[in-house]
Structure formats: structure tokens, C-alpha cells
Amino acid sequence: MCGIAGVWRKRDPIGSGDLSDIERMMQALAHRGPDDHGNWNNARLALGHRRLTIIDPSPAAREPMLTASGDGALCYNGEVYNFRALRKTLEAEGLAFRTVSDTEVVLQALHHWGPQEAVPLFDGMFSFAYFDARDGALWLARDRLGIKPMSVAETGDRLLFASEDKAILACHDFPRRIDARELTLRLAWQSRDSSYSVFDGIERLPPAGLWKITLDGIEKRRFWHILDVLETPRIAGDNTSDAGHMTMLQTLLEESVELHCIADTSLATACSGGVDSGLITALAKRFRPELHGYVVDPKLGRSEAQDAERTGCHVGVTVRRVPLDKDRFLELWPRAVWHLETDGWHASHAALLALAERCRADGVKVLLTGEGSDELFGGYKWQASTIRLWRQSWLQHLFRSKARRDRKFAELRRTPFRNSIGRGSTSDRAMALRALSPELNFLQTKLFDRLEGVTPPGDRAFLAACFYDLYSHLQDLLHRHDRLSMAASVELRVPFLENRLIDFAIHLPRRQKYRDGTGKWLLKKVAEHHLPRENIRAAKNGFEIADAFSAGTQGLLRGGLLRDAMKWSSSELDDLIDMARSQETSRLRLVGMEMLLRLYMGGETTGSLTEALHAAARSEK
């Protein structure tokens, strides 16, 4: 797990200014790789790498890594968990290896098979830059669901890329500007996932992005997308018994967790007490007997610590509590915003940073979590709500004709969307349509169409909602987890997002995901063999932090940069501050955005913002 940075010259050769920018970028990414660093360049390309040693900590595995011939170079961030199997195949084809690292396997596979053939074989989380001197092409890639990040910016004569936006912002000639459209969309609570940067001129490589850069320009492609791999007949024609599905899921989970436990360093789990993280903890114990877990224990509001300890006791794993009080929250909140590179709109951001820092302090470099389960196995209430919506006759009538449906959506697109910071409302029917097709939702509509043959329509809509969440809600979670775990130099792994598990889950029928009012039905059946029944049956609750943690901080908005950026009048600002005082969600978003602007545009420090938050909170008393 690492940080990568690069400069690609379109015309003139790499110069001293480019090499200086690589150094600046590496300094901005130091938290991602405190164990080692390296750089490499030729006439066209300069690469920088910060290393967090997880697999093969020897100097031989340092990066950027070159092939023995010197005509292939790799700068890589992530883990490809099936590297041992890939290595055996490559050795059978005559290739020799100098290290036992997954990095060298990735490099050899790319160089021997070519990126278009090799990348779909990688089972893991990764982003990388690979240069092939044989044809002068630079390849940038990201894993199929975007677990590991890659930011890109194209200037007049250069292409800049790095693991985080802040590394690109560190380059001496890159203009530091906020994208006003992104700022407005976020404040209006429009769905914006981690594929979009708030900084003008920076874009994010999409999940499964595979870009080829040559002197002729950029060829953008993707090597995987659910629309391309979804086999609707497998879902519609599924007649496997419940027991058969349970056996297969148990096997796939065990094999995935075993792969994710490969590390030449200490490993732990984030154990919240829920089904997902609890199941990962129970299975990981088999492969890492010394394993322990962590749970955040907020001193205000509801704590999951007791539930997590019940799981730990049941599976024989010690769970360590990570305390979080208001002072600690106000210390971590600005730092979370800095690392997220967006507003810290959810109080759990500070909690995850607290957990990651406790892991690092304990010498833990790898943390397993349960992200991805709700999206793959149907664990969210809003997914199930689509089934109820489809029982309404007017909706069934509308969707009998694709032309009629598309005309209705076109009408809604022409209607001003009244959502705002205060979350204004539209008619129930319009909101239902927006939820069902946020292309309004272009992707979700295409997914619904792709699932033709699945019946009844409610099942079809439910599965489309689950698949859409892989590209919306999950992207925010993965972005948050990468940025905040790597802020403390901790690698966060997500065993549910393993290639075979993804394929298995996306081809399950609705009845295996949602049955008898129970989400994640199949997964919970498997969990019954591993976890306390009380935890399995508990209602799903998102991680909650009490309103009191951020209470009073809305005063930071007075005289700040957000007001100037949005051109709010004094009366409008007063109204927004009053709203933030009474609504925690609005307070977190507004104050978080204010801190983002102060950190990146105003040059303030996280420490000074913590002091300002304390002062604002005191003034409200």
C-alpha cells in the first residue's frame, strides 16, 4: 500500500522543474508511505513512490520497479491478492522473479501479457502507472470497483497523476481553484461520489479505468463494468437451493478472507458488532489466530462497543475500544477534511480517523472491514423500498412502455429540482421516479433495462438499486476509507469486494438478498454459524455520533470563505447558520465545507481550525 505520483510530458522532455514537482508530490503523500520512497524518470516520464511495506519488506521490492530488461516500469499502489497463482502461471511461461512481492508479479504480468489481458486477471485493490518503453505507452489503471484512488490533471504540456488531489495541487504551476459547480452540488445534497474532485482541473480515474497515454493523446477505456458482465439469465433462471447458495457463499468468504490475510505485518479487524465486520472477524481468526479487533466507543450517544465485544467473545477475539469524546472529535474533524479533500459531512469521518490512528499506535498496518456487503447482498432500506414502490399500479403502467417512461423522465429533468441545503421536497410521485431513475439516474435506468427478463418488476428494480449503489454510495465509502486509513499509514482491506464474491453476489436473485422483510438474507443465514444470534437479528444502524459533538460550531461560518464563494447575503447567512444550529446534517456539511476552503484556499492549519471550532462552540453557550 503506497502513494504514487507522476508527470508525463506531451512534447518537451522531462526537466528539473518536473523532478522538483515529483518531490513536492511525494512530500504531500508522505502519510501514504512512511517506510520508503523512490523515483525514476526517462525523457518523457517521471515517477515518484511512497512505500508502506506490507508484502516483502525487503529493499528488492522497492518502487518504482523496473523489469530486468529496463524497458518496463511500474509505480503501484495496492494489493493483488492472487499474485501467487499468477506468479506460478508466469513461471510456467518462462519468467524468473527476483522478489516474493506482489509488485513484481503485477509488473511481469503487465509486461509479458500486456495491460488489456493482464489487468482483468488481477484480484484485489490497486491503482498503478505502468510504462512500456517498447511502444512508448503509459498506462494508468484502477481496480474494478475503485477501492484504490487515482487523480489526474491535464495541463497545456503535461499530464499529472497521483494517489490524491493534494499531490497535484502541490505542483508549482498548477492553479489551485475550487470547482464552483461541485461546491454547489454538494451543498445542495446532490449525489456526488468520489469520481468527482472539488478542485477545478482535477478528475478521478473511474472504477476499472484503464487509460493508455501516448504522444497522440489519451485513450480512455474500462476493463470491467457491471453492465458488461451481468448475465441476466443466470438470475432469472436460478434454481439453486438455499443450502446450495449458503455453501457456496461460505466457501467464497473463507477463500477471500484467507487471501486478504496475506501480509508480512500485523493485522486486525474493524469490528463494529454488525453482521458484516463480525463475519469478517470470525473468519479471519482462523487464518490469523493472534488477531484482535477495534471498535470506536463515543462518549456521547450510542456506542457499538458492547455489541462488538459480544461478537469478540463469541469468536474468541479481543476487541479494543477506541474512545472518542468531543475534544478528540474537534481535533480530528479538520484533519479528516484535509485528508478527504471534501467536506467532512458525516461525523463518522473523525471516528474512522481515530480508529486508524489507534491501529497505527498499536503497530497494526492492515485492517480488515466489511464494506461492500450491503451493496452486494441488499442490506439497505432504500433498496427494499423499491419493491414496495413497484406495487403501485401507476408505476407499473408507466414502465410498460420504455418510450412513455423516457418521456416522463425528460419532463422531470426539465423541472427545477427543489432540493437545497435544507432538503426541500417535491411530490411523492416525482421523488419516487427520481429515486428509481437517478439519470435522472442514467446508470440505474440502464441497469433496469439490462435486467429485462427478471420478474416481477419489483425484483428487477430492487436489483438495479443494489447494483447502482456499487457506483454511488459504495464509492463514497471507499473514498472515505482509503483517505482516512492511509492518513494514519494503515492499509484497509475489504474482503467482500473480491472478484469471485462480486460475481456470485451480482447474480443472486432477489429472494437470496431480501426475504420476509430481512435484508442480506443469505449472508445472515451464513452468519448464524459464526456470530451471536442477538447481533444478527439487531436492526441495522448506521454509525452514529451525538449531535453534541459538533454543536455550536456553526459560528465558524461567520466571516468565512464559504460565504464569499457562494455570494450569500448577510440575511441568507443568518438563515443558514440558524438551520445549521438545529440540523446536525446541515451543520456538518456547511462547517465541513468552510474548513475545506480555509485549509486548501486560505492556507490555515488543521490545528488553528480546531481552536476556531472550540471558540465557536464556546460562544454559543
Automatic annotation (TrEMBL):
CDD domains referenced in this protein's UniProt entry, alphabetically: Asn_synthase_B_C, AsnB
Reaction equation(s) it catalyzes: L-aspartate + L-glutamine + ATP + H2O = L-asparagine + L-glutamate + AMP + diphosphate + H(+)
Pathways involved: Amino-acid biosynthesis; L-asparagine biosynthesis; L-asparagine from L-aspartate (L-Gln route): step 1/1
Alphabetically ordered keywords of this record: ATP-binding, Glutamine amidotransferase, Ligase, Nucleotide-binding
UniProt cross-references to InterPro entries, sorted A to Z: Asn_synth_AEB (IPR006426), Asn_synthase (IPR001962), ASN_synthetase/amidase (IPR051786), AsnB_N (IPR033738), GATase_2_dom (IPR017932), Ntn_hydrolases_N (IPR029055), Rossmann-like_a/b/a_fold (IPR014729)
Keyword Nucleotide-binding found: yes
GO MF, one example: asparagine synthase (glutamine-hydrolyzing) activity
Enzyme Commission code(s) on record: 6.3.5.4
Pfam families: Asn_synthase (PF00733), GATase_7 (PF13537)
Domain Glutamine amidotransferase type-2 span(s) in chain numbering: 2-216
Keyword flag Glycoprotein: no
EC category name: ligase
Family of this protein: Belongs to the asparagine synthetase family.
Name the UniProt record assigns to this protein: asparagine synthase (glutamine-hydrolyzing)
Organism encoding this protein: Mesorhizobium australafricanum
Gene name of the record: asnB
